[in-house]
Amino acid sequence: MEELIEQLSVLLENKVGRLSEVTQILEEADVRVKSMVLADTSEFGILRLIADQTEGAYQALKARGYTAGRTRVAAVGVGENYRQLRAALALLEKQTINVEYMYAFPPRGKESVTVFRFDKTEEAAGILRAGGFRIFSPSEI
Predict the structure, then answer these.
(1) What are the distances in angstroms from CA 48 to CA 26, 54, 80?
(2) Residues 6 or more apart from 39 whose CB is under 8 A from it?
(3) Is residue 134 within 8 Å of 77, Cβ to Cβ?
(4) pTM
């Protein structure tokens, strides 16, 4: 499905300077980060990011010894308020699709953009599109 976006997940040691080092690596590789979120545990964090050059970011991080994986996610326009997010989630619940995680971009005009990883990402994107929700393509992010 062409509107799904490839996201990188980078395993980071929960240690001072690791996030700074990753951003430096990406800057040196001339990669523009469009969105990122960091979740942590006591020993490691998972940095999820969307970049303008996924392959370049992936190769630059791997070359410096970082463990990185690729995941297809859906960037969904959910309007201006939580009611539209709730409507999207209700559509997915009816089809027994689980949200594994989500995070939001800064609003684009009046439209909030939320990145979702579903247990059935392609199916979820189709359901949301059919329900009137905008699914952003990689070039729109």
Answers:
(1) 13, 12, 24
(2) 45, 46, 48, 101
(3) yes
(4) 0.87
Per the structure block, which two tokens stand in for 60? 């630059």
Which amino acid type is present at position 136? F
Q: What is the pLDDT of residues 27-49, one digit of tens each?
A: 999 999 999 999 887 788 999 99
Residues 80 and 21 in one domain: no
Burial label, 37 (beta-carbon count in 10 A; 0-12, 13-18, 19+)? middle
CATH of residue 62's domain is 3.30.2130.10
Per the rule left: phi > 0, alpha: psi between -120 and 50, beta: everything else, 20 is alpha
Q: How many CB atoms lie within 10 A of CB 99?
A: 15
The verdict on 14 and 63 lying in the same domain is: yes
